């Protein structure tokens, strides 16, 4: 009796601590995401400065009250340029994630619902494209267009739908084994009617989760392409462009032109990933493996 009580107490304490930690993580992640969105929406109209305004007398100023993030090598305010860069990253991330999810859901649902040779052909296509590194394939795609936002969106979308297709196909195959699907087929429902009325609604939560998890990957991909000079034009504010242009300043000892754009890449993407992880545990609590995109 005296040995069992402490064990039960420890087990309950561990479970409570785990739930508390998860709650704190979700709240912090949500607060960071909201702060990023509010910064993108409110900072440009509230800060009456031109992000392209050059002031060589104020170049490479350290962070201060007048310039919280300091200035770059042309005297431009880094806070405003980082916010504009974050806006571009969020735009590219959300647009590319939605496009890739639509493509992946369509391919995965068709493969799982049709089966047979269609399933094998579509999955071989997915396997073939997956064998090519995302960044290399993205460079090939974006190099066919002029630098801009939408070529980057197309490049990221066409390289990130593959995992969604696998997830949706696996979910469709699982749903096809359910009794109500057999009942619908026995009742005379066509294959397409079963897919649209029964299978597709069942995979929407997983597809939506894949879309949310894809946003950080798309933001990192856009930043990498811009850092390599293949994304947005260099005169536009992009987090990748800002880091690429700050390399010489970092070697000279000015750390702020690199630190703040880097933080605006890392922190929002980790916050979005944290919210997506909590969502995954809610819709599928028994599955603890990571959803790799």
Automatic annotation (TrEMBL):
Record protein name field: ABC transporter permease
Database matches in PANTHER family: ABC TRANSPORTER, OLIGOPEPTIDE TRANSPORT SYSTEM PERMEASE PROTEIN APPC
Domain ABC transmembrane type-1: 86-276
TM annotation in the entry: 28-47, 88-114, 199-220, 259-279
Keywords tagged on the record: Cell membrane, Membrane, Transmembrane, Transmembrane helix, Transport
Ribonucleoprotein is among the record's keywords: no
Family that this chain belongs to: Belongs to the binding-protein-dependent transport system permease family.
Subcellular compartments: Cell membrane
Topological relation to the membrane, as annotated: Multi-pass membrane protein
SUPFAM superfamilies registered for this protein in UniProt: MetI-like (SSF161098)
InterPro entries with a match to the protein in the record: BP-dependent_transpt_permease, MetI-like, MetI-like_sf
Lineage: Bacteria, Bacillati, Actinomycetota, Actinomycetes, Kitasatosporales
